[in-house]
Amino acid sequence: MTAKTSNDKFNYINEQKYLNDEKFRETKHEYFEGEIFAMAGASRNHQRLTTNALVSIANHLKNTPCEAFSSDMKVRADKGEKYFYPDLLVSCTKGEGDSHFEESSRLIIEVLSNSTRKFDKTLKRLVYQSIPSLEEYV
Predict the structure, then answer these.
(1) In the chain, at which end, N or C, are there fewer CB atoms within 10 A of the end residue's CB?
(2) Are 82 and 102 in contact (CB under 8 A)?
(3) Can you name the residues that pair with 37 across neighbouring β-strands?
(4) 3-class secondary structure for the chain?
(5) 126-135 pLDDT per residue, tens
(6) Could you say which architecture CATH assigns to the domain 42-137?
(7) pLDDT of 37-49, one tens digit each?
């Protein structure tokens, strides 16, 4: 994919507008090079797996400088060209930077579903692996 400009024939939105608008939307959207994509709701099993992983990891991180976040925390990647909502992330920045997204994730976990499996295992994985602080993508 190549970066889109405001001259392209779709509704290009710049990074700042995306971030501002996302704070007030009822539905979460991921951002990819000027395009936004609505997030679908998760199944009961997907939510169960995510919650169990979050609880286990959060308990493991007690008394450390790191925190675990669920799918409501965005990850900023590729110099602001891409924002995703992973199912779980771990950060050790202790509130540095913007409070609505994370740029220095150490761990990112995506619970695969039939509708997202291919994207999560290919392009999204490559984007995540380009984050300098990332130690593990699951």
Answers:
(1) N
(2) no
(3) 30
(4) CCCCCCCCCCCCCCHHHHHHHHCCCCCCEEEECCEEEECCCCCHHHHHHHHHHHHHHHHHCCCCCCEEEECCCEEEEHHHCEEECCCEEEECCCCCCCCCEECCEEEEECCCCCCCHHHHHCHHHHHHHCCCCCCEEC
(5) 999 999 999 9
(6) Alpha-Beta Complex (3.90)
(7) 998 888 899 999 9
Question: Which tokens sit at 94?
Answer: 């202790």
| Contact call for residues 4 and 32 (beta carbons, < 8 A) | no
Question: Within 10 Å of residue 66's Cβ, how many Cβ atoms?
Answer: 16
**pLDDT single digits (tens) 84-126:** 999 999 999 876 667 889 999 999 999 998 888 898 899 999 9
Q: What is the pTM of this model?
A: 0.86
